Protein: Amino acid ABC transporter substrate-binding protein (PAAT family)
Amino acid sequence: MNDTRPARTASLSRLAAGLVALAAVALPALAQAQDEPERKALKVCQDPNNLPFSNVAAEGIENRLADLFGKAMGLPVQYYSFPARLAFIRNTLRYKLPGEDFRCDIVMGVPVGFDQVSVTKPYYRSTYAMVYAQGRGLDDVKSVQDFLALPPERRQKVRIGLYDRTPAAAWLNKHGLVDQGVPYQMMSPDPAQYPGELLEKELSAGKVDVAIVWGPIAGFFAKRVAEPRLTVLPMQSEPGVRFDFEMAMGVRHGEREWKQQVEKVIETQRAEITAILRDFRVPLVAEGGTLLP
Structure:
């Protein structure tokens, strides 16, 4: 099976969607034990412009989760912001000058299997989604299978926007749709770029007819974009293409007690976590990839 993972990131997007896309090629991380300090704050590593996951105005999914975790732990929430690029973990979670504290202690969204951090137990599983603008000739498409069943002469006219290094590319290749793909760069060097641009700007403006993005991005911007209205069709994994991934949190390797503390909150606050995800319209899927109601 093709296991192309969603770079909050971390694209899954740059951090979640981006991290998800890059998890398969992450560099090995050291696992040495470390002395664990007393936590006086929940120090969160975040991308400052990464909606729907995080931003400096604390409007993202992970900002809401950080508030929840801070309250559960009895700790004030502090952020260290750094644009999510290939060196995000090195410049945030791992960065420490002699005699100083680490810049931050937790990344709120990383894909399971991302070995640059010590990954907690997962707190949700989502999937990629196909998104189209209503009123532009695709309103009769109610599922991904409906799209694939369109007459060839109609389907072949559809321009499909996708981020590079995501499962969407493998899916287009499998279904003979490569020529219709319009690729966009996931890890742009432009810090002003954010994961939802493909929907909020390109799709909305009619530059593409369909977009395939990580589910949390799809759900958030379908809610946020008022005109045109966007329809979200979650995609199921299929032979050769994996679309659904588990997301967890990341701490430094060797900080076992801190990881256990974070995992305890994941367990005790699962209902509240799920409520936050649903409020952001994140498509949630079960273990086998079945979409949850």
